TrEMBL record:
Homology family: Belongs to the RecN family.
Lineage: Bacteria, Pseudomonadati, Verrucomicrobiota, Verrucomicrobiia, Verrucomicrobiales
Protein name: DNA repair protein RecN
Pfam families: SMC_N (PF02463)
Role this protein plays: May be involved in recombinational repair of damaged DNA.
Keyword Ribonucleoprotein: no
NCBIfam families (UniProt xref): recN
All copies of domain RecF/RecN/SMC N-terminal, residue ranges: 5-503
Organism (species): Rubritalea squalenifaciens DSM 18772
Molecular function terms, GO-annotated: ATP binding
Length: 550
């Protein structure tokens, strides 16, 4: 439950520290006194967006802090863990919002969080209802959730949803592949072309450098023959003529002066090497095949390399890898008939399993729907709808839905003799407030939300009906903490605690305050609400309202 609400510089409130107890808590005050600030502060705690216009005039920021004491913080701690926030200490949760002129900040247990985290927490902390805050009753999904809570169908619903997710995933996979089969012939043609183009090239990445070297020789073969032949000719002439003369003269010098022999030690080997070089060049020319066709073929091969690299990768290795990928993709596409058959069988198997689980869930819903209808109708009678009818109707889906095999729609007939219609189509503001209270009363044992806030939901009612509304809220207060912001003394009188919001002017500034009233002060507030001034009759009526408190 909410144990403390601190508000600072929010609208007309400069500072308010509100300590709350258990049960039904009544909040009253004249119109414009600032009761709406309480609701506004709670909405900020629940993650609603605020704006700087909410900041009290003359201040740079405003803040709201709420302290909750939770009976069981396991679910809250799971949400906090997912958000990377410290868990509650001693089942106590602290939420704080700070809004400035240029920035807003929010904290949970002193750790900064996003608004989405606050909203997710708020769903488990506070259930807020006002004159225009009844959309949960109009939402078919929320109505279904209410029935499941009443039927205690959590286990069946969880099992159904697990299989539904698996079935939906397989169904989507099957449909996607089926559509590809219908519309993918153009893509298949492209894949076949690419695979054929790459595989026809019979690529071996290591051959690229060898091909380039061979092409370099082939493209320059004529010039190579010419140069090699000229070089061999020069060597032949030098070896046969000039070097033989050098060799003869060297022998004569050695004969005349043996000491010079060392100068000519390498002459014979040099002559032999030159002769070998000359013969090698002759062999090179003979082996060099001047074939224009080979040069063209090598050039075509290199062009193939470059074309494939431009299309499929910067290197031949990348081209080969890409070819393997699209071959695998093509194989899967060309064999998708078998895959489709396999997926279709899996979808049918999952669907059969889903329907079996759905029937178990549906059976529980159909058994409990009449009971919930009867219980809500009973509460409605106590709230003034003496001859009203209420039904929780189930309507089968054409195909399984995330929530089950059927939808739920609350039907309401406030007037006898008139057909029941969907609640969202016929209920007036006053009617929907009491219907909501009846639903909440019927689901009081299943609703785990610790705090319920009713913001003037008793509008457009009065007299005994207002008293009945108050008693219903008081009954809810036995299982939950309930805050009722009201203008009706019949409601305020049955509250376990009664707080009055007042507007004061001090030093030219208006400020809203809140105080708890007991005894004579509480009677005085009820008299004011009754419009009786200081009359004895009004005081007697206020005393009687308090005396009749359940």
């Amino acid at each position: 439950m909410l144990t403390l609400l601190n508000i600072k510089n929010l609208a007309l409130v400069d500072h308010l520290s509100w300590q709350l107890g258990k049960g039904l808590i009544g909040v009253t005050g004249e119109t414009g006194a600032g009761k709406s600030v309480i609701v506004g502060a709670l909405k900020l705690v629940l993650g609603e967006r605020g704006d700087k216009g909410m900041i009290r005039t003359g201040e740079s920021s405003c803040s709201v802090e709420a302290v909750f004491d939770l009976e069981n913080s396991k679910q809250i701690n799971r949400l906090l863990e997912q958000a990377g926030v410290e868990a509650c200490e001693g089942d106590q949760l602290i939420v704080r919002r700070v809004m400035g002129q240029s920035s807003n900040k929010q904290f949970v247990n002193n750790s900064p969080v996003t608004l989405s985290v606050l909203k997710s927490l708020g769903e488990y902390l506070v259930d807020l209802h006002g004159p225009h805050d009844h959309q949960s009753l109009f939402c078919i999904d929320r109505q279904l959730a209410m029935l499941d809570a009443y039927a205690a169908a959590d286990k069946e619903l969880s099992a159904y949803r697990d299989v539904w997710k698996a079935w939906k995933a397989k169904h989507n996979e099957y449909e996607a592949l089926r559509k590809q089969e219908q519309a993918g012939e153009q893509e298949l043609d492209l894949l076949r072309f690419q695979v054929e183009e790459i595989e026809r090239a019979e690529l071996k990445p290591e051959e690229e450098s060898d091909i380039e070297e061979r092409y370099q020789r082939a493209s320059n073969s004529t010039r190579l023959v010419e140069l090699a032949t000229q070089t061999a000719g020069v060597l032949e002439q030098g070896v046969n003529e000039s070097l033989s003369d050098v060799q003869r003269m060297a022998r004569e010098l050695e004969r005349l002066d043996p000491a010079i022999r060392s100068l000519f030690e390498g002459l014979d080997s040099a002559i032999v090497e030159l002769q070998e070089l000359e013969r090698g060049l002759v062999d090179y020319v003979e082996d060099l095949d001047v074939d224009g066709n080979e040069a063209q073929a090598l050039e075509d091969r290199i062009n193939t390399f470059e074309t494939l690299k431009r299309k499929y990768g910067p290197s031949l290795e990348d081209v080969v890898v890409h070819g393997a990928k699209i071959r695998s993709k093509l194989d899967s596409y060309e064999n998708r008939g078998e895959l489709l058959d396999s997926l279709e069988s899996e979808v049918k198997r999952k669907l059969e399993e889903l329907k079996n689980l759905g029937l178990k869930l549906s059976d529980k819903r159909r058994k409990q729907a009449p009971k919930l209808s009867k219980e809500i109708a009973s509460h409605l009678k106590e709230l003034g709808f003496k001859q009203a009818s209420f039904e929780v109707r189930l309507e089968a889906h054409a195909s399984p839905d995330k929530g089950g095999l059927e939808s739920v729609d609350f039907h309401f007939g406030p007037n006898p003799g008139e057909p029941l219609k969907p609640l969202r189509q016929i209920a007036s503001s006053g009617e929907i407030s009491r219907v909501m209270l009846a639903v909440k009363s019927a689901l009081a044992d299943q609703d785990a939300t610790p705090l319920m806030v009713f913001d003037e939901i008793d509008a457009n009612v009065g007299g005994e009906i207002a008293r009945a509304v108050g008693e219903k809220m008081a009954a809810l207060g036995e299982r939950h903490q309930v805050i009722a912001i009201t203008h009706f003394p019949q409601v305020a009188a049955v509250a376990a605690e009664h707080f009055v919001v007042d507007k004061q002017v001090e030093k030219g500034r208006t400020r809203s305050t809140m105080k708890k009233v007991d005894g004579d002060a509480r009677v005085d507030e009820l008299v004011r609400m009754l419009g009786g001034g200081d009359g004895e009759r009004a005081r007697a009526m206020a005393d009687s309202l308090l005396a009749a408190k359940p």
